[in-house]
Write a structure and sequence with these properties.
14 helices, globular, 53% helix, 5-stranded parallel sheet, alpha/beta
C-alpha cells in the first residue's frame, strides 16, 4: 500500500518493506564486506539519481546490521530480508529502537509533506542516541534524502557526524551530493549508485507489476532514464502526457501555444497534482540546462547565457512561489511564458 503524503509513490513499495533490490549488487557486497571487516565507516553517503534504490539499499543494510550485530559473524553478502524475522517486523512497523528514519515530515494542518527536513527532525537523532546510549546495540540513522535538510538541520547533523556515538551508523542518501555541505560530504564515505540497466529496470518494474502500454514502452523507458520513480511518475501520474504537451507547446505559436500553456497549467495545479508538478519542474530544469549546453557547444554563447540566466530566474521564482504559497496555476503560466519568450 502506498501513501504519497509519506513520500511513497502510487505503485511503489516503501523501501523498508521492499525485499528485493535490483542492479546494485557490487555496492551491496561492498557494504557487507566493509561491515564484516569491522573497519567500516560510521557514515556512508549513498548517492545517485532519484528512484534507483538508494533507500531500499539503506534499509537492507540496516536490516543486515541489526540481524548480525557482531560484524565478524555477519555474512559477506546481504540476503533479501525475511519479512517474518523479528528485525524485519520491527523495522516494518516503525517499532525498532535501533533505527531512526529522518525524512520530510507531514504537515499536520495540511496533510502534505513539508518542503524540508527541519532542525526539529534532526533533534530526534539527539534524543535517539541519548535514549539508547546504554544498550550497546547498533544505532542507525537513515537521512532520506540529505538534500532536503535545511541549513540549520544540515549544521545540526554535521555536529553529530563530527563526534559520532559508539556503534552508530549514518546512511546519508543524496540525489545531488554536490548541493550538500562540503563538511558533511567530507565526513562520509561516498558510495555511488548508477541508473538501472534495461535488464534491472525490467526486473524492478516487473516486481511492482507496472503495466506499460506496448505502444509506449520504449518511450517510457527512454524517458525514465534508469529510474523506477520516473517510470512510475510517467505512467501513474500522467508524466508522459505532460511532457508531450510541453514539447507540443514549444513547437507551437500564437493562440495555439497559449491554449496549450493553460492546459499544462491546469493539469499541474489540479488537486493532488504535487507529484506531477514536481516531476515537471525537474524536467523543466533538465530541459533548460540541456538547451544551454547544446547552444554553448554549437558556439551560440549568447543563447547559452540566456538559458543559463533563465534557469536561475525560474528557480528563484519557483522558490518564492513555494515559500509564500502563491497561486500555482499563475506561477506555471508565468514560467511557461518565460520559457517561450
Amino acid at each position: 500500500m502506498s501513501d504519497e503524503r509519506a513520500g511513497v509513490l502510487e505503485g511503489a513499495i516503501a523501501p523498508v518493506l521492499n525485499t528485493h533490490l535490483f542492479g546494485h549488487r557490487e555496492q551491496e557486497d561492498f557494504l557487507a564486506r566493509s561491515y564484516r571487516s569491522g573497519k567500516g565507516h560510521h557514515a556512508v553517503l549513498i548517492e545517485g539519481p532519484e528512484g534507483i534504490g538508494k533507500a531500499t539499499l539503506a534499509f537492507r543494510f540496516a536490516n543486515h546490521i541489526l540481524r548480525y550485530p557482531e560484524p565478524s559473524l555477519a555474512p559477506d553478502t546481504i540476503a533479501d530480508p525475511d519479512p517474518a524475522h523479528p528485525v524485519s517486523r520491527q523495522l516494518a512497523s516503525g517499532a525498532s529502537h535501533n533505527l531512526l528514519h529522518l525524512s520530510r515530515p507531514v504537515d499536520e494542518k495540511t496533510g502534505r509533506v513539508k518542503s524540508a527536513i527541519t532542525v526539529d527532525e534532526v533533534r530526534k537523532a539527539g534524543h535517539f542516541f541519548a535514549q539508547t546510549s546504554g544498550t550497546g546495540n547498533w544505532r542507525i540513522v537513515i537521512i532520506d534524502p540529505a538534500d532536503d535538510l535545511n541549513r540549520n538541520a544540515a549544521n545540526a547533523i554535521l555536529k553529530i557526524l563530527e563526534e559520532p556515538p559508539k556503534r552508530a551508523m549514518f546512511l546519508v542518501l543524496s540525489h545531488a551530493p554536490g548541493k550538500l555541505l562540503p563538511t558533511i560530504r567530507s565526513r562520509c564515505l561516498p558510495l555511488r549508485l548508477h541508473e538501472l540497466s534495461p535488464t534491472a529496470m525490467d526486473q524492478a518494474l516487473g516486481g511492482l507489476g507496472l503495466t506499460i502500454p506496448a505502444d509506449r514502452r520504449d518511450q517510457v523507458l527512454s524517458l525514465a532514464k534508469g529510474s523506477v520513480a520516473r517510470a512510475l511518475k510517467l505512467v501513474n501520474y500522467g508524466g508522459a502526457e505532460i511532457l508531450e504537451a510541453f514539447e507540443a507547446m514549444l513547437g507551437a505559436s500564437g493562440p495555439t501555444q497559449r491554449k496549450m500553456m493553460f492546459k499544462i497549467a491546469d493539469a499541474l495545479s489540479a488537486k493532488d497534482s504535487d507529484v506531477a508538478h514536481g516531476f515537471f519542474i525537474e524536467h523543466l530544469g533538465d530541459h533548460l540546462a540541456e538547451t544551454a549546453r547544446r547552444l554553448a557547444l554549437s558556439g551560440d554563447l549568447t543563447g547559452a547565457d540566456h538559458y543559463a540566466r533563465l534557469t536561475s530566474t525560474i528557480g528563484e521564482q519557483l522558490t518564492v512561489a513555494a515559500a509564500y504559497n502563491l497561486d500555482r496555476k499563475q506561477t506555471i503560466l508565468d514560467v511557461l511564458a518565460a520559457v517561450t519568450r
